[in-house]
Amino acid sequence: MKKFMTSRLLLIAVALFSVFTFSACSDDDDDNQPADPTITDVVATNPNFSLLLAAVSKAGLADELAAPGNLTVFAPDNEAFAAAGINQAFINSATPQALADILLYHVVGARVGSANVPASDSVRTLGQKLIFASRNANGVFVNGVSVKNADVAASNGVIHVISNVLIPPTQTIAGIATGSSDFSILVSAVVKAGLVDAISNPGKYTVFAPTNAAFQAAGVTQATIDALSVAEVTAIVGQHVIGTNVYASDLINNGTAPTLNPAATLTIGTNPPSVKVTGSSSTASNVVTTTPGATFNITATNGVVHVIDRVIL
Asked: Domain FAS1: where (predicted)?
């Protein structure tokens, strides 16, 4: 009996020693493992992010992008800054607050992998403005800007490298339209239709905006708008508005999209980019693709505007 107890105690002692040794080795292994880089670390160690790093440092955001959490950063690399006309001299001359306003427009307070980017939706940034994300057969986009390298992992989130800098919008769709005399007929039609609030309020609208010349190309003048009933004008205006964000990158040939006019669906063309009421015999309205951000992909606080060369009828 005494021999049996001695053997049992010996086995227990060996087992406890093994557990302790394994635990100690595991702790040592964990201590020796390099910590996953934070978002700030990734930016700081990649020479293609040197301008982004300079902007982040001057804006005082390095610590925020290194803090524990779950963030998504749409990160412009040096090529993207160059495409936006932003260089080191611009960063040196900008105030920290101005840089922070731009940079925080690139950050979402949740981890969103590229596979989880919605087909079309708005997302609020840390700068408290909406960015408009989309995913389709053409790729992943934010405000119509392509993601060229997705899902760069960090300990506190994920980075998607983008091909241009996102500039925070300052005007609503209504503000953009009323700010140009070229849209005076469109504005009068929107007012008559009672849709000013719809394109002024928060949202994620897409407006295909005909200029005065575009109305006239279809034989529609200010006098025509004045003579039409409110219901007729409302129908015309409504079929120029889609209730979600659709950038040029989201246009899929022969795709269709419902409009604010329940009776009208738009059919999309891509060569050239165009829209027309599905089933209409009227000429398609081409999107004016002269200048990104000026004639198409004009980002507003509540959606996007594309100028078209003919009113949609």
From this structure: 36-166, 170-312
Which pair of structure tokens corresponds to residue 65? Answer: 């992008």
Which pair of structure tokens corresponds to residue 57? 């440092």
The last residue of one of the domains, among 141, 162, 183, is 162
Distances (CA, A) of 14 to 1, 9, 27, 28: 20, 9, 20, 21
Chain centroid, CA 43 distance in Å? 20
Handedness of CA 53, 58, 59, 61 (dihedral sign): positive
CATH code at position 98: 2.30.180.10
Contact 300, 176 (CB under 8 A): yes
One-letter amino acid of 302: N
The residue with tokens 């609030």 is 197
Burial 37-66 (b: 16+ CB within 10 A, else e): bbbbbbbbebeebebbbebbbbbebbebbb
Domain limits at 143? 39-162
The HSE-up count of residue 26 (CA atoms within 13 Å, CB side) is 6
Domain count along the chain: 2
The answer as to whether 200 is a domain residue is: yes
Asked if 303 contacts 245 with a C-beta cutoff of 8 angstroms, the reply is: yes
Neighbours of 292 (CB within 10 A): 15
- Residues 238 and 270 occupy one common structural domain: yes
More confident residue, 135 or 34: 135
122-181: pLDDT as tens digits: 999 999 999 999 999 899 999 999 999 999 999 999 999 999 999 999 999 999 999 999
Distance separating alpha carbons of residues 203 and 120, to the nearest angstrom = 12
Q: How far apart are CA 280 and CA 270, in angstroms?
A: 18
**One domain, residues 194 and 70:** no
Q: Which two tokens stand for residue 2?
A: 């005494």
